[in-house]
Structures are given as structure tokens and as C-alpha cells.
Automatic annotation (TrEMBL):
Keywords, ordered alphabetically: Isomerase
Enzyme Commission designation: 5.3.1.6
Domain of life: Bacteria
Protein name: Ribose-5-phosphate isomerase A
Provenance organism: Brevundimonas pondensis
Length: 227
């Protein structure tokens, strides 16, 4: 993990934003560099839709004009980080528990740019535990259903509920996160569909066929990957 690489990626992505755009603001340490670089450009008539309360706080602090998906349902460009970037720009996201709002914003966007440091690029998805957002009510029974799906995908370990010192982590929407230590995800599309079909699962961190461009920070600058 390199902060300089994240910064370089965030700054390169900010150059893709034009005056008057509606911009989706991702969540996480890399997205924060983008938000800072975007604010520094001081472009006129921007409206920004944040994907988390954390990002909203940062953007507000930096003087960016915020909007919501309700007020601006069509987003021109979203820039966001990732936990893993696999072949075809298939992503794992949600390490910061923002996956649901992120996916809502990504899917409402004409264009999505993923920004990351070089360590996020992997030959196969699954080393980073896959976050799965689950409704709190009855979550242990939902976890059993998730375990059955994972077993069907040759993933023997059940997903574990995410905890902090103060107790279970809650998302901005009040849900819980289960993390699945997949190790290798052989068929991301089938796993995504199977998880999504479960009652109690709100969303999962597989972002497939949503990324138009990845900007990978290097120590000296950045490289790009097209899908
Ligand atoms: O929920 C969090 C998001 O999906 C983040 O974009 C992702 O976890 C990457 O975060 P970072 O840039 O801090 O590695």
C-alpha cells in the first residue's frame, strides 16, 4: 500500500472532471485523494454525490457542493477506489463498508473510473475478503444461507460478521457486513448472482462490468487499464 501511488491516481482522475459535471465521490483513502484534488481544481458548477457520510464530511470541509442521488439521479462521472482489481476490471469493493451506496452511485453513472495503488491489481479475485452487506434482522440465518452459497462455490469458510472494539460494524444504512474469505473466486458473475438472490443480503462487494477505466498510481505517476 503506497500513499504516494494513491495520491497520484487520485490526482490523475481529477483531471477527467469538467466544469458543470455531476460527480460521484467514492469512499476510502484513495478516493479521499481524488476529493482533495478535485476541490483544488475549483471547477465551476460542480455537483458532487458522496457515497458515504465520511466522504460527505470531507467534501463539505473542502467546499465542494454536495447533492444526492434523489436530486441528481444522473451522474456524469464517478471516481472511487477498490480493494482488488481483477481481470476485465472486475472489482472487490467494500473494505470500508460503503459498498451499497457506492454501487447505487456507480450504477447511476455514465462513466466510472477506479483509482488504486499498484498492489490492488491481482490476477484473480478473492485474496481480499469479499464484503457482503446484510440486514441486521435475522442476520445469523442469512449467514447460514451465505455459507451454503459459498460452499457451492468451493469456498469452505463461512463469512464472518465484521466487528470493531465497540461491537458489530454498522454501515451508513444501518446494516451489517459479513466478510467472506474466498481466497479464489473462480466465477465472479455466478457468485454475484447467487449472493444477490439471498433474502437478507442487501448487496455484495463484487463490482462487475461497471468500470470504464482504472487509473493505477505508480511511484512516479500513473498507468491506465481499460476493460
Ligand atoms: O467501502 C469502501 C470502498 O469500497 C473503498 O473504495 C475500498 O475499500 C478501497 O479503499 P482504499 O482506497 O482505502 O483502499
Amino acid at each position: 500500500m503506497s500513499d504516494q501511488q494513491k495520491k497520484n491516481a487520485g490526482e490523475a482522475a481529477a483531471a477527467h472532471v469538467e466544469a458543470g459535471m455531476v460527480v460521484g465521490l467514492g469512499t476510502g483513502s484513495t478516493a479521499a485523494w481524488f476529493v482533495k484534488a478535485l476541490a483544488a481544481r475549483n471547477l465551476p458548477d460542480l455537483r458532487c454525490v458522496p457515497t458515504s457520510e465520511r466522504t460527505a464530511d470531507l467534501a463539505r470541509e473542502l467546499g465542494l457542493t454536495l447533492s444526492t442521488l434523489e436530486d441528481t439521479p444522473r451522474i456524469d462521472l464517478t471516481v472511487d477506489g477498490a480493494d482488488e482489481i481483477g481481470p476485465g476490471l472486475a472489482l472487490i469493493k467494500g473494505g470500508g463498508a460503503a459498498l451499497l451506496r457506492e454501487k447505487l452511485v456507480w450504477e447511476a453513472s455514465s462513466r466510472c473510473i477506479c483509482i488504486a495503488d499498484a498492489a490492488k491489481v491481482v490476477p484473480v479475485l478473492g485474496t481480499f475478503p469479499l464484503p457482503i452487506e446484510v440486514v441486521a434482522f435475522g442476520h445469523k440465518t442469512t449467514a447460514n444461507r451465505i455459507a451454503d452459497v459459498l460452499a457451492d462455490h468451493d469456498i469452505p469458510m463461512p463469512a464472518r460478521v465484521r466487528q470493531a472494539d465497540r461491537g458489530l460494524i454498522r454501515t451508513d444504512g444501518g446494516n451489517l457486513i459479513y466478510d467472506a474469505a474466498c481466497k479464489v473466486i473462480n466465477d465472479p458473475a455466478r457468485l454475484a448472482a447467487d449472493l444477490k438472490s439471498l433474502t437478507g443480503v442487501v448487496e455484495h462487494g463484487l463490482f462487475l462490468d461497471l468500470t470504464d477505466l482504472a487509473i493505477i498510481g505508480t511511484d512516479a505517476g500513473f498507468e491506465t487499464i481499460n476493460p
